[in-house]
Amino acid sequence: MPNPQENARLEQIKRSWQQKRQITERLGKIKTKIGVYSGKGGVGKTTVAVNLAVTLAQQGNNVGLLDVDIDCPNVTKVLGIDEKPEYVDGQIYPSEKWGVRVVSMAFFQQNEEEAIIWRGPMIHNAINQFLQTTEWGDLDYLVVDLPPGTSDSPLTVMQTLPMDGFVVVSTPQALANMDAKRCINMIRKLNLNVLGVVENYTGEIFGEGGGKQLAEDVDAPFLGNLALRASYRDNSKPTALLDPIVGEEYTHVVKAVKKSLQELGKEAG
Ligand SMILES: Nc1ncnc2c1ncn2[C@@H]1O[C@H](COP(=O)(O)OP(=O)(O)OP(=O)(O)O)[C@@H](O)[C@H]1O
Ligand SMILES: [Mg+2]
User: Fold this and answer.
1) CA distances, 10 to each of 4, 24, 28, 120, 216 (Å)
2) Per-residue confidence (pLDDT) for residue 116, from 0 to 100
3) DSSP code, position 59
């Protein structure tokens, strides 16, 4: 007769197996998962994730945006989403804005000021729960806004949610891209793909060229420049939809991302 300890262990194995199966089923309906990542905070990761997502949606794709920047989830603020997603029968139904379905860790904060200090296992559990319970529907692309750097949080996210590739956001100054190199090494150590490097804040003030240099140094595609512009100050709409020149920059980046995906045999459409 099996003893209670043995029974509990079998139950545990069964639960974790069911969880894995459920996640695999859910993720199976998402054709392409793209992570947006950077070495440092404040380089424009969230801005790039949001504008990539709305540009892909504008091109007729079904797009989801998942904010797993645990420490600082602000995708909803950038998109101007106030209402929480619908939570029915244990399922999360994403909020929708500008044609993009959005789920953010911020939805589960009690208030905006509350600091989220999470350790690896908690992050792992929270992401698993997101993945298990979010009803995305059929998606061509899921864009994921990751925490910056090489600490526990981004590492856990990368290990929990299998991404098809990463867009690395860098800056015009070559020196500042040391951290980005470390990030790219981390992605590759995990046997994941770097889709390429974008340079944000290009222009007179910060210069130009760091992103392209970084791409060359790490032997990854350069996906394009995104200039530093005043139009980002208007947050009534994602800037790619508001400013046609920014829209063009993002169309170019999307094209380059698709090319990278195609070369890896991962392109959705
Ligand atoms: N190309 C640009 N031109 C002008 N402003 C920009 C540009 N890109 C981003 N910004 C602005 O810079 C600020 C920081 O951008 P963002 O929040 O996207 O960075 P982040 O890397 O996600 O930061 P964090 O690490 O805090 O999550 C925002 O106010 C954003 O509007
Ligand atoms: Mg951010």
Assistant:
1) 10, 21, 27, 25, 50
2) 60
3) T
Query: What is the reported pLDDT for 112?
Result: 60
Tell me how far the alpha carbon of residue 41 lies from the centroid of ligand 1, in angstroms.
9
Nearest CA to ligand 1 atom 3: 228
Protein residue closest via CA to atom 19 of ligand 1: 44
Q: Pick the atom of ligand 1 nearest to 230's CA.
A: 4
Q: Retrieve residue 159's tokens.
A: 């290990």
For ligand 1, whether the C-beta of 201 sits within 6 Å is yes
Find out whether 79 and 98 touch, Cβ atoms under 8 Å: yes
Encode pLDDT of 188-211 as tens digits: 999 999 999 999 999 999 999 999
For ligand 1, atom 7, which residue shows the shortest CA distance?
A: 228
In this structure, the residue with its CA closest to atom 8 of ligand 1 is 44
Ligand 2 mean position, distance from CA 140 (Å): 23
Average pLDDT value over all residues in the chain: 89
CATH for 30-263 (2.130.10.10, 3.40.190.10, 3.40.50.300, 3.30.450.20): 3.40.50.300
Place of tokens 């069964």: 14
- Whole-angstrom distance, CA of residue 187 vs CA of residue 218: 12
Which tokens hold the place of 106? Answer: 């911020």
Q: How far is CA 243 from CA 156, 180, 198, in A?
A: 36, 28, 19
Instruction: Please state, in angstroms and rounded to a whole number, the distance separating the CA atoms of residues 217 and 235.
Output: 35
